[in-house]
User: Fold these one by one.
Assistant:
Number 1:
Amino acid sequence: MARIRLEDVGFTYPGADAATLAPLAMDISHGEAFSLLGASGAGKTTLLNLLSGILQPTQGRIYFDDVDVTGLPGRERHLAQVFQFPVLYQSMTVGENLAFPLTTRGSNRRRADIDARVKAVAEELNIEGILNRPANGISLFEKQLVAIGRALVRADVSMVLLDEPLTAVEPSVKWRLRQTLKQAQKDLGVTMVYVTHDQTEALTFAERVAVLADGDILQTGSPEDVYRNPAHEFVGHFLGSPGMNFLPVAELPETLQQNVRRQGDPERLGFRPESAKLTAAGTFDLTGVVRSRRVLGTQQGDVISMYGLQCGAHSVFVRSSAAQAVGDSVSIDLRHWVGFRDGIRVGRHGAE
Amino acid sequence: MAQNKVKDNRAWIGVLPVLLIVAFSGVIPLMTVVNYSVQDILDFNTRFFVGLEWYRETLADPRFVDAFLRQIGFSAAVLLVEIPLGIVIARGMPTDGLRASLLLVLLATPLLIPWNVVGTIWQIYARPDIGLLGVALNELGIAFNYTSEPLHAWLTLLAMDIWHWTSLVALLAFAGLTSVPAACYQAAELDGASKWQVFRFVELPRLKGVLVIAVLLRLMDSFMIYTEPFVLTGGGPGNTTTFLSQYLATMAVGQFDLGPAAAFSVIYFLFILLFSWLFYTSVMRNEDES
């Protein structure tokens, strides 16, 4: 286990005009569940490869526990990786796969120690029953579990990199794998870096999330914080489904506009679909006309719907238990909002 | 019911072309040979049924046994060199870029040369009086003469076959290697696997399929080799490089001993079949166990 620190790490592919990764800093604490979230092309894979030693940064240094590992090849960084699809040694049994990282590097571990460690990891992941099965004779779900097990088996591993590990797994068992992974992370206290483009996975897995776009980290914080108080318009837009609503401050009603301007004079106002309250037309912050309604389900007996609203020239989404029909005029009461100027958060407001 | 039956029968017409093709290309020629192998044919009108006489005679024929052992030795030597060498070449190949393309073309070149031309090339190349290789070896103080020294004849034959066919193994192995996902190498690297372990546990299991094909192709081909030794050594010196097919050709079209030659052919055919089957099933059984 280690603390992972990146100082001014940047990467430019040879011959490329622009940097794939802007010089960025990152600090992952010892034993933390950390998530790197970004759309494809954001530089996730490049950052991952820099961490695992496939690529060398063109600038900056990488430290594992204050040891400079920048120039070290992957095998000397003592890390483990779980890939998008299960990578197993297909000619070995499940047990041999789990034991393999313990038998390499001229290690002189005792057979009994290896067996004990394999057994412990297998128990953690609930795969004791298949230890003697050939690795190519188990289900995809089990294969990925074994691959995770192989990453966890070495007690001296500095961190475990997870590269979209749920991609190949069927949706029906994704949550189980995620649960197991999260549990193992907690039980073993391993530093884990989970790279994904799936916000649900990132936000549910991690203690802290870093949102990556265009080769730069836009925001790092707790899932809650990143979701509620995006530091950047992109983060607000990228997280959530649908993402944050944005309205130009200049087009807001006078009272609201004055309130908003007091918080750092933003150009644009962003609010989450669930941080607004719908009521029949009244004197609240914003007014709009219902354009669409999609019932999401019920919550404590209330029917929750996603409303598409027309607010002046803009359309916004509001999640609400109010019962409004298409064509109704409604008022929108903003409970929580974030103000942006030039895409950067300058102010925010709201309880909850 | 009745209607179904009629339909079923008519469906057989669809199979007829395949039946005809298989019959004329495989079954009938083979059965003709089997038919010959149980008869003593003096001329086309005078033939006697002799049962398994020719089989007994062939198997007891020391020249057959010798040629058979030579054949096994040759195939074994060829496989032992070509398969590992092909893998080594494939692993050393660059995976993309101009260099890879050039190397692939270069590798494929020996495969495009007609077999008797290959024989002729090596026949001239190894000649101790005018051949580049032969003269060079003699200049180095090695009294090399493949026309008089059985060992030299063998080495020349092996060198020729390796030159001709290692490319095939290399190309197959190369194709197999390109299908190994990069993540597998990366995982092995992070697991701290040695170079040998990477080959043994990452590459070899994924090469198995193509290597089985490579071994089968080289086994069958080398077991039936005819043209190249015929051109290069003509089976000599003495009978030291006379392989099965050459001995068979002498019997069948040289002496017109149709009966014994037919029995010989059937035995020959069954051996190739047996070897291929043994190899394939043993490899595939291991597959299930592992």
Number 2:
Amino acid sequence: MTTLVVDGLRRRFGPLLVADDISFRLDAGRALGVVGPNGAGKSTLLNLISGALRPEAGTVTLDGRDVTARSADERCRLGIGRTHQVPRPFTDLTVFENALVAAGAGGGLRRTAAYRAASAALDRTGLRKYANERAGRLPLLDRKRLELARALATGPSVLLLDEIGGGLTEPELRILIDTVIGLRGAGLAVIWIEHIVHALVEVVDELLCLATGRVIAHGEPSAVLGSREVREVYLGEELEEGIAG
Amino acid sequence: MTWVNAVVQGILLGGLYALFATGLSLMFGVMRIVNLAHGDLSVLAAFLAFALIDALPLNAFATLVLVVPAMAALGWLLQRFVLQRSLGAGQLAPLLVTFGLSVVLQNVLLEVFSPDSRALDIGGLGTAGLRLSGSVSVGWFGVLCLGIAIAVLVGLQLFLARTAFGRAMRATSDDQETVQLMGIDHRRVYATATAIAFATLAVAGVLFGMRTTFDPSIGPARLIFAFEAVIIGGLGSLWGTLAGGVVLGVAQTVGAQISPAYSILAGHLVFLAVLVLRPQGILRPAAAR
């Protein structure tokens, strides 16, 4: 069983502390939601886990193996998949080739196996009909789907989702929620940053609230959303209504 | 008919220019590195072949078997241990590194091989050809160069389009940060791209050495031809590089037909005309990017 352990992560951008002693543990088949105001360090946290950023202190451990010194591409091959908040498809490649690159390099698959994984990822994200389109021609929402498809094609055991729900219509969001629930059910550990809190609480087992790089609450979603610290952090940036109840 | 002949010779010469420019185009396309030592490296390849012919009982073409892998290995090491370090330091750093490499190479070649002009002997092949009519003839060597150029470009195109590593290379050229999240080690892709670029420039360098004489200081003059072929055809397009090489070759031979002194000048004029009228290159749609 996959276990991701984050211990004492700390990172600064100049004088700004963007990750301040962040620790948690996430087991396979569990989903962790991450909330917090803009600039709280949510994306930074995912970057520290995926390897795009190195921490000044602290460790990231995957299945008992310390991966803190590993590069982003190695971590991907070890099973950490990540989507960008702002989609960055390989614009000159087709949608299918985008997924195929991920399945081949990240998933370590060859030929038929890679083709299957790539096409399964497109099926799962509803992109099959665009398989032979150049990715640069996709509209924004489909680009977001492609982010997820590519991350899935790498065959991750830990999936890091960065605001992939923003801008979706209610029925589209429903499909996304079901997809993520399915992935969690299939044994993936999921970390999902999302402002759409009602979508998040449907999926996640626990919620973590960040503010100025610090964990201010972590635990049962309803408890976290009900806590006074979280309410205070969100002052003026109203949490969605009816979620705590 | 002499004009037809000039065009035919230009096309054949263009094959060699295209082959020579491929490495420059590839390194720019994948890593955005402008390799100012490109010309000198091709001269290095020619001198390596020259030294091999001197030391071993080898035919000029047989030296390719040793020179091409040696240059590819040099490219891999250069990218991995020198150019890679310069990539994080802004756009100017790799340019300065390759400029420095160019100066170092010229001086090392001068020291080792003296400033004398050399040539790689290919016997009768250099002049043998097929006379098509009174004034139009096709040299076998030119046909061979064009054939090799097309074979290399088709091979490279298939490699990029059809193989997993080729796809990884295209993805890396698109976004070198995001490929890391797909599990691709971009440094490995870069080193391999440079190795391929050096292999193609080695072939071109040796063929150049068979066609005309070379000396340690001729590299920068050749670099201009590679630049012109790449820009005329359109940056980042392999077929464009072939077209650009042919256009440049034809311009030079047709210019020489007017007067031998106009050969190089005619190439430069066509290059300038393309820059003014079609800066994206003749084979690239205006809307691209």
Number 3:
Amino acid sequence: MTEKNKITSSSTAEYFAKNLQQVGFSSPTKAVLTTLKEALDNALDACEEHKILPDIQIYVRRLGRGNLKNTDRILIGVEDNGPGLSVEQTPMVFGEYLASSKFGRGRCSRGQQGIGISAATTWAVQTSATGARVLTKQKGQSKALSCVIATDYKKNKGLMQEKQMVAWEKPHGTRVEFIIDGRVQLNGEAGLLAYLRGNVLLNPHLSLTYELPDIEKVHIPRVSDDLPQIPDATPPHPHTMKLGEFISHARLFGTMKLMDWLCKEFSRLGKEEVEAIRKTTKLPAALLPKAVSSLKDEELQVLYQAIQDAPLKPPSTQSVMAIGEEALSISIQRLGDIDYFSVVSRKPCICDFKPIQVEVAIARLSTKEGSVEDSVQVLRFANRVPLQFDKASCAIVKAITTILWRSYGLKQTKGALPTGPYIIAVSVVSPFIKFKNASKETIDASDELVLEIRKALMKGGQELSKHLNRESRAKELESKKAHIEQFGPALVESLCRILQAPDSRKKRAEEGIQKILGRDDRAAQRALDHAEEKLSEHMQKQKKRLERFTEEDNQIDSDETNREEE
Amino acid sequence: MVRYAIREKDAIPFLSKELCEKILTDLEEGKRPVLKATKCSLDNCIYSPTVGYLTPGSKKTSTELNVASVKKMARAVFMLEIVLRNVKSGGVNTKRELYYVCKGLLKQNKNLKPLDFEDQVESDSVIDFICEILECYREELNCYANDRGGQTYSKQLVVVEKLTDGTEATIDLSQLGTSPFMPKNRPQNLVLKVKKKVEFCLVVESEGTANTLVANGFTHRTPSIVVGAQGVPSNAVRGWVKRIQDQLNVPIFFFGDLDAYTIQNIYRTLKAGSASSLIRNADFSAPDVRFLGVLPEDIAKYDLFAYDVRESDVVEKRSLKKARDALDNDPFFKSRRNKGLVKILEWLIENKKRCEQQAFFSVDAGNPRGFEKIILEKIESGSYV
């Protein structure tokens, strides 16, 4: 092979350093948002992991002209009250690619691969020649670690510079600052405010203070002291695996008995289910006590197919980290002057071989805040992280636009987003969300996922329509009353003038018209009462559904625990 | 309700008071007044060749007093009061003027303020509603429109007009030079005479083409009456042609484009009236009018320029679709009497062609009398439907 054709290998860090656009650094505006997003996601994940109610401060400041053309030099700082990082962890977290505590664990954490925050460090180094400045302190330490982290691209290792121990009044936490070239966009769907707004909605337990250019410092207190239940890493559900994965999984547990492997290393499979599945196949019963390694690939294939056909319980709700209808209900009211909202939490289900849960919140803003003519605001979330780019190809937007919102009382041009002062927030949570790209900007619109999101949206739409129906009935009644008061006497007056009728006839006619139109008035009142009754029945049903939902969920989980104990 | 002969003096005040009395009495008795009117739509049209125009069937629309209709009724009675005042005094107004008259009166009476109109569309619909329930046309309410079309030229025609002050005006059309006579508002008030025998009346769809004929001396050479229709005939044109038919008893020919819109909208309306004006077709249609052209056979005979109907043109495509619907549903075209017109429509649908009336100017193109010659030739040879 000639020198010219020599094949070389690159480190992960080298690859990402040259392809930062793939992870959200494709423009100066996106660079600011992505940097903030990665830092905030890390802070929230760290707090929740250690059962700490997050108290986070954010500051974004313009420091002057940037080195790149048409950019500003921006300081982005995020300070949390999380557990803090050790001296060893700090360069790994901020300077090393694919260094993650979450990769492949089957949990619904915001971060997954350990790319984002290292990419932010790389962007800072590339545009302003300074790494990430970190100040971190763990519980019990008297001093905090202060350092600057950069990346050794050849070795894909974090480099710690300017290391010193300093005093910090905070008992524990981490503050990270990046100085980057970028541009600050506050408003619009891709703006910082929309991003923070999304986080506020999905994290009722978050206390957030932010200081952004051109606006006053804002503090949003938490509305819930309940930390989200961090889902434990659960064994895989057999319906979520493909054949190749199933066989590879089997080869990891060579000497384990087949029965034990199926019961312990998969969720929703117990002895009864395994026995029933074996009976449907031609596999001998003697195979179950044998080691997994003794099974041939063909036998594993037969077993896999039988398991796929078996009616197993859906994955545990513990495997996905939903926000819950109650928490959403509280949180959505922090988005502005909301005069109506409905929230729907679907049961977890399998989409594209993965457990998934969809939650929807529909809120109507008072008309002062929202425009009647504009499209509704869509807030998209994947594992509680707001998605702000590439809206058109996202599964969530596809689901919204394929619903006929007119039947629920909203205005809509066919195939477009509905219009009106509404916020439609859709959250998809799953340990394995199928993003369309590494920067996690949009969810792949598979048919199964779109269908699942549509079901949640339709339920939300039905709830909304009940409310709108009651409103329109009330308006109708009001309008009818006004009509009777205004036009009844005018009609009688004109008639009497034409006929030159005496006052006695006028009086009788006025009484008559009140009597006639009063009947319509009463009919409208009955219609309103009926609509209110329907709405009230619906609220009761929803309450019961929620209670039942929680009970069923608890029951499934306790069955699971019992089986594991056995 | 006992119908009054609509032409009689005081008919409108009588019908109006009768209507108001019924409403007031119902109200006094706590009953919901119901106003019934003839349904003016194609599904309520009857066409009899012996009658010659579209007449209403038995279907009625009714408006019952309820919360939804009380505003409409109150406005209608209020407007009725104003037009009655005009009818009694002989005053006239346009719809636009009535809109402002209403606004002025409503401003003065705060009890009636809720009846105020936001725009003229609202007040126009109230006037139309009154016409529907009284089954009259708006000219009978002294509400006149500035009707377009109907410019008439003749060297033989004399028109006598009865004026509101009781006097008469006599207009000799031969004395008007190149200016046409305009039959405005109520042609029913006009009496027609001829100084010499008139051979025929020619109604031309295009006002410009009618002008050309006259400017080239057609009416000098041929004892005739030439009328410009200016597109879909207005009430004035329809009433005027009807008047010519009834009073002069001369053959009347319509000359226009060869396309579905002309046959179905312009010619049918002139000859038999329209579905929306069912109650006044008797006074606004001239069943004796014949279709002189352009006929499909003229295209081959005179080698005329004809255009393809483009499917991409929304208007033309819609026109053909309406023609198909007309063949299926319009009693006028379903009548055997009009099978000649049906054949033309079928030809248009099948061949997807259209030919303009001015295409005749391409025949003998250098001769200013060429067009006139063809018209006369067609009439003489009976080349019409």
Number 4:
Amino acid sequence: MSDAMLEISNAVKVFAKGTPNEHVALDGLSITLNKGDFVTIVGSNGAGKSTLFNAICGTFLLDSGNIALDNEDITYKKEHKRSHVIGRVFQDPMKGTAPGMTIEENIALAYSRASGSGFKLALNKKDVEFFRNSLSEFGMGLEDRMKTKVGLLSGGQRQVVTLLMCTLVPPKLLLLDEHTAALDPATAQKVMDITQNIVKKYNLTTMMITHNLKSAMETGNRTIMMDSGNIILDLDEKERSAMTLEDLLKMYSAKTNQDLDNDRMLLTKE
Amino acid sequence: MVLVLGSLQLGLIYGLLAIGIYIVFRIMNIPDLTAEGSFTLGLTVSAVCSVAGHPFLGLFLGMLAGALAGVVTGLLQTKLMIHPVLSGILTMSGLYSINIMIMGESSNLSLINGTTIFRLVYKMFPDVSRDVVKIIIPAVFAVAFCVILIVFFKTRLGLCIRATGDNEDMVRASSINADMTKIFALAIANGCIAMAGGLLAQYQGYADINSGVGILVVGLASVIIGEVFGGRRNVTAGIVCSVLGAVIYRFIIAFAIKSSIFPAYMLKFLSAVIVAVALSIPAIQSYIGIHRIKKGGRTK
């Protein structure tokens, strides 16, 4: 038994093995997260960031290597069983909610993973009141639209609902996959603030992929950089605070021996 | 008057079918063709049991058999990853043989010497007119199924099923077992459809292997007509309006026969046209919209 919440060792995943399109998505990656760690992940497109998340969630099984969550080996556990304790927010606001169902129904859906029987009525007065209060903490006025279909909300509002759905029952691990990238800057900032508040409130172990280097440096207590399916840089809070954005960019170029050709990364420097 | 009563009776029976079709096509968004087989399966099981003197057991077993057919289609779709349309066709074709086997290697069966729930009620209440009984029994079933399903789709499991049809991506990434919810929904839907078949057998007093042909289109037409009357608002409205749509559909058919504009054998063709037209309305509207913009949108 250890303090580690997530332990990945020697994770390997190769797509289209044995064909000309063979692509090594994870190349013997190992990482350990302690309880309450908030890790930001940066890296160019195709570096394996999302693949890492998919592997943790069980979208596919690893070719080799192990994943342990809270000292339980979940390497071969089914996706929907892992999701009881892993919350995930995608970049695409459409992915995390059911558009044809109301806000309260969506939240009830997420809330029901906490407790038992499927034949209980999903919405009782007490639960709805609880959902309302939780939503009102975000200060977006969504608590007055509980019976609105989620499909009618904006992308930012949908991401906030998704965030609440993922954290209403605090998960052991929260995975944020560029969850503010599809939002306008003001909304993105707001969703980011809400995210940080939630993570702090429940002391959640969190991993966040972002292309915004600035926010990667400022958020959480640790930053890792990925390239070609492995971690090329791992900075803890101390090392990170001693660094500037320029240092990080330089380091990135040096480590990968190539110029930054990812315009998105350059553009979001500031 | 006979026509009005007959339409109401049949409409209520086909209302159960419409509920089943609504569940798969609208809530689950699965193009499932099992209905043609499961409807006849309910019909044959109910008929055979009625002949043996067990009409209630017949309805129950028929419903169960239909649900089982739904499970088979569901397993083909999810666990064996066969295309949903093909899965339905496979189950449907297989059931054709099974249904002949159930009816004792015959393609039809008369219930003339059997016990049906209709005849039981006639005996119990000899003073009540038979036409009224024939409305009340299907109405009781229709209302009971509506109430049970409306409540069911408000339970946690019900929400999970609706979410699977609404956004499968989300469900796959959440703690819901999407395969399980799909199979469950197909079972419930085909159970309803088989119940409609079972009631029909006892209502009309005979079972025929071809009763299920074109039944899917009938169900879809009912659902679409129901949507005109507000069935799109939410699931509760959708279920109630499907039954309403089935009744209205029967009235339309009865009117078409009565006015003798069309010969009776053209009814399936008419149903198909109604469904095709109704389903194409959104596309036609968008064409008209594009045409208007092209015509009037230029400023120069």
